[in-house]
Amino acid sequence: MTEPFTRKAKEAQRKFFNKMQRMGMAIAAHDEYWVCSRGTGKSEGLDARFIIRNVWSMPGSTGALISPSYAKAWGNTLPAIIHALAEWGYIEGIHFFVGRKAPLSANFGKPKRPPLQTAWGNCIHFWNGTVLVVLSFSQGMSANSMSLDWVIGPEAKFLDYDKIKSEVDPANRGNLQDFNQCPWHHSVLYSTDMPTLKAGRWILDKINDMNPVHINLIRNLYREMKLTERLPEQTPYTKRKYKELRHDLMLARKYQAPVKPMRGKTREYTVYYGEYDIFDNMEVVGKDYIWQMYRNVPSLIWRTAFMNERLFRVANGFYSALNDYHFYTPGDTRYMGSMGADWNRLRLAGCLADGDLDMDAPLLIGFDSNSAINTACIGQVSRHDWRHEQIDRALKHDPTLLYPVFNKYNNEFLKLAMEQTAVKVGKNGFEKDKSPEATEDSPDNPDEYKTHITDAWDTLFVGANFFMPELAYAESGIIFLH
């Protein structure tokens, strides 16, 4: 092993890990599902820990990092993971190479199942031959014909669970001749903050697959093993005890008794599910940061992204037909592919990284302006000669109406505002309840989540449908709707 891979004792650094991160290290279950708020250290304490452990435990293995799109992976997920690996002391260009195969001069190990030469652009090559392949759900069947040894899925709330079951899980198979003795062979880790879309709530159901009694067994075995390891006098008995405890711990980490017993089924992979909020990382982020987020972040974002609350839409709201299938994951673009692992260019990509941007279609911009807040919604009309009527019927997929869909990454304010917009009985019958607009802008009730922005979208929708019938044939440009 070359010098960059070794650290002398005086170079070792002491690192602090919070409650959530320590729990993950102690349990280290075969299948891990984490719903943790922003600022809890998911990248450093969960994602990086999982990757490093599997790289060391399965040299030459093939792992997969799954993402809804390459734009999401290269623009958001991978930079955070690369930084987290650096916090652990693993440096890009020394311990691993991103977006290419390591040069021969690096003397890296070879993968047991190397990617094709053209596929290295979406891989991370580690020093011992392990390869982490980046897979995009926007590329159909991207995991097809692959044999994976482990899988990681950051930002799991954006991942299509049907594709996980139909594409990823079947690919996480085989290779038992190489790593069958490793308790984490074919392990998975999915992490996210609290899902707000119904499609992302599949991860919340994983708590039903966890056996709490078995998790307590793992914790007790881990505690006894560590106490035995730290005994000042290591006798043959204590050494044998430590070895037996470690064996039992590794077995418990891999298998648990079936949560739902079935005839002939004696065991299943161990599952751990955990939920943690921002206060579980107070030692690192500090009280001042938490108070700042509480003051500056809109209330609904604070409650979901930082407090891990499960929020549901207003019953019988104004946009009652709005559902998960109205929100989509944009595809990948050649523009993104041309940038490779150039982090600076990726950060500045802007809307050019969105696969739903039609460079030949005009931009439609709807405004809503008042003394409290100015909002705008931007959209494009599909190239179909459709006639259009009312919003509710359109959301219900009436074939005679324009069918609106929303980019789930770029419409967080609009989505939550529409879900929280209620209905009231006015002088003309049922109408949108705009009474929240009369309340003062405050951290608990910010203007961004009131009906202002929904009015901007209504303007965009009505304008495109009723006042611009020729838009389906328009060439390009920007059209302002008032």
From TrEMBL:
Name of this chain's protein: Uncharacterized protein
Source organism, top-level taxon: Bacteria
Region listing for Disordered, in residue ranges: 427-449
